[in-house]
Amino acid sequence: MTSSSLSRTESLSLLTLSAACVAILCNVFEGDDKPLIVSLALSGLAFCATFALIRWLGPTFIKAGFKGVDLSKHNRREIPECMGAVCASVYLFAMIVFVPFAFYKDVVAATSGGGNRDVVLQVEHVQEGRFLHRFPHSKLSSYLSAIVSLHTIASLGLADDLFDIRWRHKFFIPAFAAIPLLVVYRVDFGVTSIVVPIHLQPYLGQLVDLGALYYVYMAAVAIFSPNSINILAGINGIEVTQSIVIAALLALNDALYLLTPYPHPATDSHLFSLSFLLPFLGVSCALLCHNWYPARVFVGDTYCYFAGMVFVVVSILGHFSKTLILLLLPQIFNFVYSAPQLFGLVPCPRHRLPRFNARSGLLEPSVTPWTEARQPRAPIAWGLRLLGKLRLLRVVLDGEGRFVETSNFTLLNLWLVWRGPLREDRLAAEITAAQVVVGVMGLFVRHSLASLVFLEDNWSIH
Amino acid sequence: MTSSSLSRTESLSLLTLSAACVAILCNVFEGDDKPLIVSLALSGLAFCATFALIRWLGPTFIKAGFKGVDLSKHNRREIPECMGAVCASVYLFAMIVFVPFAFYKDVVAATSGGGNRDVVLQVEHVQEGRFLHRFPHSKLSSYLSAIVSLHTIASLGLADDLFDIRWRHKFFIPAFAAIPLLVVYRVDFGVTSIVVPIHLQPYLGQLVDLGALYYVYMAAVAIFSPNSINILAGINGIEVTQSIVIAALLALNDALYLLTPYPHPATDSHLFSLSFLLPFLGVSCALLCHNWYPARVFVGDTYCYFAGMVFVVVSILGHFSKTLILLLLPQIFNFVYSAPQLFGLVPCPRHRLPRFNARSGLLEPSVTPWTEARQPRAPIAWGLRLLGKLRLLRVVLDGEGRFVETSNFTLLNLWLVWRGPLREDRLAAEITAAQVVVGVMGLFVRHSLASLVFLEDNWSIH
């Protein structure tokens, strides 16, 4: 058995799972239209395909130049990089295959010339050209715009992995990828008002219409989400586990809406969202199997951008972009905390990932060294000392109060400052656990406490 | 000036053209909705962007491993490969930016709450959810499905350039890329009948409904078109010029419909088609500037697949997939002629491009050598001799009638058999001219002679 082939157990497990999923898909075509079941089955198939392809394609990727060295290991051998591209390809392929399933019943109803009265349709029957239609085109265009956005971000990620695009060039491209999303949002919903918290209503009224600003806000979310996943990275598995946690919590949020008695007005939005999240969870879990400590493959920027955009797509088209913000709190913290280095107030080395201590085998916070000649200017020195006192930074001073080194400004380093040296998988697990805790609290705030500051929840007005 | 920067003249020309295009775009937003003008302006911008990016990104591509050696030159230096990826990126980006322009008026009408009675809409006003809509979602979903298909094929092409995917693996993938197209075709038109020629009507009736077979036919076109562009390749510029000729003739065909008094029933389809073809012509012309003899860049499989799929998209969604077949006649001939080597009846060397004679500087037909030990079997030998007699193959026999060598089965080699050794640009120009002649004849047949075998032309029944 070579490192690029599946073991007998793996082959058997994957084949069994695939066969089960195919059987489900075949049954669905005969029986009723159940997009959720189809989506689950496709997610299972996507998991199997991704798992096998990542294993098989390793040598091909290395040959094509997609390879990297794991700096946090004793044994520094080259492993395949950019395997997120496989995830993205399988995912997009699954979503395209899903199109006929998702619209199978609609297609039959729209083209059979009547007789299918059991299809619940919100549009009146439309006479268009020479043919009678009852097809939910708005649903299809939402769906397709999401695929276009995801495809665009996957290409951008791949280009970044191939060419190492400069930060300032690639930062805004997710906003362009979001254009189809925003057009569809505009024509399908066009809601740009936000509900004002009760305590502010005497001053601002019940609703504030943000107008074009709301689109700027959504574009900002589209820029932020992919980039924020991309900068909370650097140790095995962390990119994938944080994405799986966010996707799982978004799916949980969707499931909460689906548990209400049908037909809830938001059911369709959340079914839509689930149909994008489940295959994403499928391909991500397969990637995690290969990327968890000790990693046999790297995920590449492709995966980070792609994951971030999946969240943007479902939250904009599912109308819960504010819920997404709550789930991205650790990423937001990481970004804000990183700002001093990102914006050049503090020198930023090429790599800020935690430092591997070869003797102990543990990770320690990486540091920015300060020489005697090059000390921070007064206001920055004051800020660094303050952060040091607040235990938000490790600051090492010499006998005369000059800076010797400060830990780098990332959540991973900060966590190591707090918890002391940790093994790589332990650090990844703890950060993931923190993401889960913050996310669950975020959802709790969203659904329980929101009623304290808002008169009506989305549950009722959606 | 380095080879990767623009000359002063080039910079000035591109800036002038860009400025003119931007000025047009700004004016369009103020005045009426003219998607054709917007499309023209975007095509100009796409030309400028592609021209500059191909020049600038040369060293980056070479560094990333996208490089190749031109076998048909004295000076065999490495030049950037896969520049079709730049074309595809700029094109897709332009098409995404075009979305808001294309639907600007509709968005205004759909969301302004009435008052815009001047919008010609074929659908009745639809009450959907809580908002009054008059948005042509079916048009948007056609548009988006086209972008998804093109994005998929561009990714496939890139993967092929990166990983050299095996022929049998990649052959069918265009069919999957076409799924969104076919779904939209199904719900928007669903016409699967073909008109029977007059002389056959007594036996078959006026219309024959092909049903599911029609979708198989469209999938076959989707597989054939990208692959057929890809195999008529091997000399500088030929991939691009054949694509430009086909795109220009399709645009001419569209223009014929637009010249009829508005509102012709097919106007919208052909406007749609033009809005996809014009930016394609823009990026292709920019690529040709760098790829024409002597080539400074190669186009890669990405370009060939992408070009082929653009034709599939416009012809399926514009309902003239049969017209496309007429324009692809040289490619069809090349494919059929290549079949003996593609299917292994005759040995197929790795490269079949014409042989460069370093002494004369001209191209000659490349050959498959036959040894005494390895002679073709009887039926194949008979076929080769027949082709040789028909001047469809150069056959060299030794004194005892044994095969020494036969020219390779490609249109380029056949042309060299007919015309004798030619310089590379001369060969490309002659093949392109042949493509123009055949294409114009095809369109003439389509529009003039079709009335002899069909009672009604698409002109009247759409």
Describe this structure as you would to a colleague:
- Two copies of one chain form a homodimer.
- Chain A contains 19 helices and eleven strands.
- Chain A is globular.
- Chain A has 462 residues and is mainly alpha-helical.
- Chain A has a three-stranded antiparallel β-sheet with strand order 9-11-10.
- The relative contact order of chain A is 0.11.
- At the A-B interface, helix 3, helix 4, strand 3, helix 5 and helix 8 of A face helix 2, helix 3, helix 4, strand 3 and helix 5 of B.
Question: How would the blueprint of this fold be written?
Answer:
2 copies of one chain form a homodimer.
Chain A: H1 8-30, H2 35-63, E1 67-69, E2 78-80, H3 84-102, H4 104-111, E3 126-128, E4 131-133, H5 137-163, H6 167-170, H7 173-177, H8 179-188, E5 193-195, H9 201-204, E6 207-209, H10 212-231, H11 238-258, H12 267-291, H13 300-317, H14 321-327, H15 329-342, E7 355-357, E8 362-364, E9 367-369, H16 378-389, E10 395-397, E11 403-407, H17 411-419, H18 424-453, H19 458-461
Antiparallel strand pairs in A: 1-2, 3-4, 5-6, 7-8, 9-11, 10-11
Keywords (chains A, B): Transferase
Organism (chains A, B): Chaetomium tenue
Protein name (chains A, B): Glycosyl transferase family 4-domain-containing protein
